[in-house]
Amino acid sequence: MLRFLVLYTALALGANAAQAADLNALKEGSMESLVTYSKPLPMPPFSFTDDQGGEHSLAEYKGKVVLVNFWATWCPPCREEMPFLNTLEKELGGDHFAVVTIATGGSNSPAKVGAFFDKEKLDALPRFYDEAAFASRAMGVLGLPVTVLVDKDGHEVGRMIGGAQWDSPEAKKLLEAMIKG
User: Fold this and answer.
1) Which residues form a coiled coil (predicted)?
2) Helix axis angle, 2-26 to 169-180, nearest 10°
3) Which residue among 83, 108, 110, 134 is least enclosed by CB atoms within 10 Å?
């Protein structure tokens, strides 16, 4: 039994390194700008709120591949990529994958975010907030948008600085590989 556990642990650890190599091989098109790591990075603890002020964290998504998008209503590239993220959540979201959008900074009130979501018909994305920018600072976000790819174990495996077409075939291929991995 001990041999089995040692073998299983070795295989699991090897899978993480192999997963990073696999991600690099899948970076095509707009995904070429995705920075990936040879070893998954631990995520700092941070929380964010919903429309009612309820507190949330990424721990709620443990076991899922998560695409965490830090954005703002005043940011043109952020606004441009939100429909792509909405489509991606509709197509891949569920038991194994989620898009988590976090409006960062005090100028992103629930009213402003709600008006933007309504205007753009964003009906699949969560409305989360980081009013004091604690979450974005914890994640080292210096500009917007920033999208962080988190593996099923809650580790950062990739980061996109700037906007991307998240519903593109290249993005879906990469994310589907993560989900299956």
Assistant:
1) none
2) 180
3) 134
